[in-house]
Amino acid sequence: MPVVLLRRSAPDPTHLTVVHDGTPFRVAVRRRASARRITLRVSSATGEVVLTLPERTAVSAAQRFADAHSAWIAGRVAKVPARITLEDGAVVPLRGVPHRILHWSVTSGLTVATRDGEEAPVIAVSCQAPHVGRRVRDFLEVEARRDLVEAVTRHARTLGRAPKRLTVRDTRSRWGSCSARGHLNFSWRLILAPSFVLDYLAAHEVAHLAEMNHSERYWRVLEGLYPRVEEAERWLKRHGTELHRYG
Fold first, then answer.
1. YgjP-like metallopeptidase domain: from which residue to which, for each copy (predicted)?
2. Which of helix, strand or coil describes residue 213?
3. Could you tell me which of 101, 105, 99, 100 has the C-alpha nearest to residue 129?
4. Secondary structure element (H or E) that encloses residue 68, with its range
5. Structural domains of the chain in order of their starting residue, each with its CATH number
6. What is the pLDDT of residues 103-141, one digit of tens each?
7. How far is 222 from 158, CA to CA, in rounded Å?
8. Who's near 117: CB < 8 A, 6+ residues apart?
9. Residues pairing with 246 in the sheet
C-alpha cells in the first residue's frame, strides 16, 4: 500500500501577532521536525520572540498557545535593554569606557577615539549626518579586529598553534567560535567590553585549537593561557546582554 504524505494546504505564516494590554507583539514562526512540543523563546539580546512548533501541529494551535502566553511574552520583552542608536550625543562603551559620539564636522574624515575640550572621552565622527551610525559601527569593528588579532596572535604563540583565519561579525548566540578547520570567529561587540573580557574570549577560542571540546583538559589549557577565567565569565554573565543594545 503506498504511503500517503500529509501536506499542509497553505505555507506557514512568517509570524503571528499577539496582543497584551493593547500592545501587539510580533512572534516569528519556526517549524522543526525534531520538535516534540510548542515552545516560545524571547532573545535577551534583541527581544525577538520565536515560536517553534512540531511538524504536524496546526498554526491555529500555535496561535492559541502564543495568546495564552501573551503576559509572559510582554514580561520578557520588557526586560530586554532599550536599544541605543549610534548617533550624535549617544554614549557607547569602548573597551569598557563610556564614550560620547561627537559629530563634529560634515566633511568626510577619519573617525577617532579622543577627548573633547573638557577631557571627556569621545568618538569623533566627521561625515554627513545620515552616515554617523555606519561610520561609528565601522570604527568599532576595526578596533575590535585590531585588538582580537593582537590577543589571538599572543595566545596562539604561547600555545604553539596558529588559526587558519579570523573573522569579526555581529554574532548573536555566541561571542566567539572555533571551527574544526581552525577558523576563529568573534563578535565585534567585544570591543565594547573591558579589555580583559575580549582577551579572555580570544584565549578561549585559541585554546580550542588544541582541544575541540570543554573537557577538563581543555580548561587546563585555557587557564594556562589566561588565568582570569572566572572574572571574565562573571562579567559576561552580568553584563554581556547589554552589549547588544548598541547599534
1. 36-239
2. coil
3. 105
4. helix 59-68
5. 15-78 (no CATH), 132-245 (3.30.2010.10)
6. 999 999 999 999 999 999 999 999 999 999 999 999 999
7. 11
8. none
9. 84
